[in-house]
Each structure stands twice: as structure tokens, then as C-alpha cells.
Design a protein that fits this description.
By secondary structure, the protein is α+β, with helices and mostly antiparallel strands. It has a single domain, classed as Pnp Oxidase, Chain A. The chain has five helices and 14 strands. It has a seven-stranded antiparallel β-sheet. A three-stranded antiparallel β-sheet has the order 1-11-12. A two-stranded antiparallel ribbon has the order 7-8. The chain starts with 7 loop residues before the first helix and ends with a strand. The relative contact order is 0.17. The mean pLDDT is 93.
């Protein structure tokens, strides 16, 4: 197998778009979510992100990285204004429309209307969810952390509500994303439909690993 060793100095010399694709691919497969927001004056917005991560279960926290606000970032601006947003899992039936939300639309133009995604409001929420999504979450801003090294923002938010099909939640609380037919992202623009390899029992040093029976 031919291996290539790449130094930091080599990375710095890469063409800008090549470097962006290369570095974005290295972190592996990432979740695909649509962020639903609304400005203080009522303009809805939806945009795709691939940086959502679990931060803790009690309280239930998720985090996501948002690009530097050196140019207008409508989702980020709306989250700061209203303190609330939704996260919506991207499914294989509408990943094309989800990806299109990454285009640079004017603030006055809703990506819901531009892409044909369904704009809906759940559980008395002030901000929109994506009708096509099988898993939807209402989020409230907890912290807006400025990462000074590259000027990005790390948004920390608390889950206020979740809506999903009852069959997706197994008896131990596990949410079956494979059954939900969600997609994941590698790099900036490559979408994948994952295949389940099974669940494993809790690992213990003195016992062999076994597959878990999901109910």
C-alpha cells in the first residue's frame, strides 16, 4: 500500500479550495442537520450544517460550529437575536434540497421557499422546523463561544423538545438513525446513506465483546 506523509507545511501550500476539501474530509463522517431560524422581524431561514455534536445528557446539550461572521451569516445572526432555533435531521429523500440551502440567498429570501422544503411550527415554537425531517429538535441558546484562533463561533444550546417517530426510540432509549433513513456528510459536499453494522454490548476488560439485541 502506497502511503503519503503530509506535513503542516505541505497543507499551508495547498490551493485554497483543495485544502478546504482535504481538511474537511479528515474528521470522518459527520451528521447532516438543517438549522431552522427566524429573525426578530419574522423572516424565516434554514441552512445545512455538518458540525453538530453531543455535549452532555443532563442537561441535554448539543454544540455546533458556525463560520466566522466576517460576512452576513443569517442563521447565526437570527440565533443571537431570538436565542432559539431548531435542528432537523437530513434524510435521503431530500438531501438535494438540504444541500441547496448552503447557497448564498439574500436575507429577505427564505430558503424554505427557494428550495421547496416544508416550513412548519411545532410545540408552540417561534422558529420553523423542516417538515420532511424524521427527527426535529427545539433548541435554546446557552453560550456563544468565540474561537479566537480562526474566528469561528461555537454555539452551545439546550434541547427543549424533540419530535420523532415513536418506533425510532428503542426500549433502552437508543434512537435508531439507520431506521430513520438519515444521511451523513463527508467533506463539504459528499452525502452518504449509512449501513448499520450492529450495536455492541458495554465493553468490559474481563469479558469478550458481544452484539446487543435491539428491541
Amino acid at each position: 500500500m502506497m502511503m503519503k506523509h503530509i506535513l503542516r507545511s505541505d497543507i499551508d501550500k495547498m490551493e485554497k479550495r483543495f485544502r478546504a476539501n482535504f481538511i474537511n474530509s479528515l474528521s470522518g463522517f459527520k451528521s447532516a442537520n438543517l438549522v431552522g431560524t427566524k429573525s426578530a422581524d419574522g423572516q424565516s431561514n434554514v441552512s445545512i450544517v455538518s458540525s453538530v455534536i453531543h455535549l452532555g445528557s443532563n442537561p441535554p446539550l448539543l454544540g455546533m460550529v458556525m463560520r466566522p461572521p466576517s460576512v452576513p451569516r443569517h442563521s447565526y445572526e437570527n440565533i443571537l437575536e431570538t436565542k432559539v432555533f431548531t435542528l432537523n435531521h437530513v434524510g435521503k429523500d431530500f438531501f438535494n434540497e438540504a444541500h441547496q440551502t448552503s447557497a448564498r440567498y439574500e436575507k429577505e429570501e427564505s430558503e424554505f421557499r427557494a428550495t421547496g422544503l416544508a416550513e412548519e411550527y411545532l410545540n408552540g415554537s417561534e422558529v420553523p422546523s423542516v417538515g420532511e425531517a424524521s427527527i426535529k429538535m427545539g433548541m435554546r441558546l446557552v453560550e456563544d463561544v468565540h474561537i479566537t484562533h480562526n474566528d469561528t463561533r461555537f454555539i452551545i444550546a439546550e434541547i427543549e423538545w424533540v419530535q420523532l417517530e415513536e418506533k425510532l426510540v428503542k426500549e433502552d432509549g437508543f434512537v435508531d438513525l439507520f431506521e430513520a433513513e438519515g444521511v451523513c456528510i463527508s467533506g463539504l459536499d459528499s452525502y452518504h446513506s449509512p449501513t448499520s453494522l450492529g450495536r455492541l454490548e458495554y465493553a468490559k476488560a474481563d469479558q469478550p465483546l458481544r452484539f446487543k439485541q435491539t428491541k
